[in-house]
Amino acid sequence: MLNLIRPNQKNLRIWQVLVLVAFFAVWHFATRDPQAAFFFGEPIKVMARIWQWFTVGSGTLEVGFMDSTWFTLNFPAEIYPHLLVTLTETLLAFGIGTLLGLACGLWLALSPLTSAILDPYIKAANSMPRVILAPIFAMWFGLGIWSKVALAVTLVFFIVFFNVYQGVKEVSPVVLANARMLGASQRQLLRQVYLPSATSWVFSSLHTSVGLAFVGAIVGEYLGSARGVGYLILQAEGTFDINTVFAGILVLTAFALVLDTVVGMIERRLMKWQPKSGETEKM
């Protein structure tokens, strides 16, 4: 009987659900006191707020560029236009930041002299608190989605950049020497040696970058926006509606997990050649 309830790979999902249920149970009983509920919210009211967001009312979103409107989207509930704006900002920042980090990481890893010249400036840029750039981006790009995308890109870029750079640097000199001895060109080395070496490092960074892309989008919406889940959270904070604040946090967390799951599925598909954990030791 003890073996059946002991955590293992077969009942892993059950234990994960039990942890979630236990968390909400503790939260529920801890906030039965009105004073505690004021600061920490009540899970039942939080869930009710999420349900209202997705089922009650209606919403519209004008799609266009600059001052021109191309068309208007109509939604069956209040949350959808805000959620679409936040997810659009997140996905754009995630994609742009990943591509820029991948390109710059490969470039500097394969150009030691350029890397040495730019090294102090890259470290200085990475050490800068990127949140302080939000007002500057708002001045440059306005209060639309692009100021939020720019802020989130700065968060995603450095995570991907340093992982790609390190992944290329970790390529075995023996493998490089053997490939060159067989007549591999620089382009073939890039495709057959450097990129496969950096791929595992890239996907490792992407799991972190998903959360940072959401952080950048939400912080940007906090500082100036008329749409987005961050805007809803800010409005709720202004009226001390802690239940709506936690509702926004839970919605963002759920969609961040969905995006992270998609990244994991892509990783498993592209990394089939990589031995699973523990297989190398068995061989």
Automatic annotation (TrEMBL):
Keyword check for Membrane, yes or no.
yes
Q: Which portions of this protein are annotated as coiled-coil regions? A: none
What parts of the sequence cross the membrane? Answer: 12-30, 91-110, 131-162, 245-266
Transmembrane helix among keywords: yes
Question: What biological process terms from GO does the record include?
Answer: transmembrane transport
ABC transmembrane type-1 domain residues: 83-263
Q: Which GO terms describe its cellular component?
A: plasma membrane
Q: Which Pfam families does the annotation name? A: BPD_transp_1
Give UniProt keywords alphabetically. Answer: Cell membrane, Membrane, Transmembrane, Transmembrane helix, Transport
Question: What topology does it adopt in the membrane?
Answer: Multi-pass membrane protein
- Where is it localised? Cell membrane
Q: Indicate the family of this protein.
A: Belongs to the binding-protein-dependent transport system permease family.
**This protein's name:** ABC transporter permease
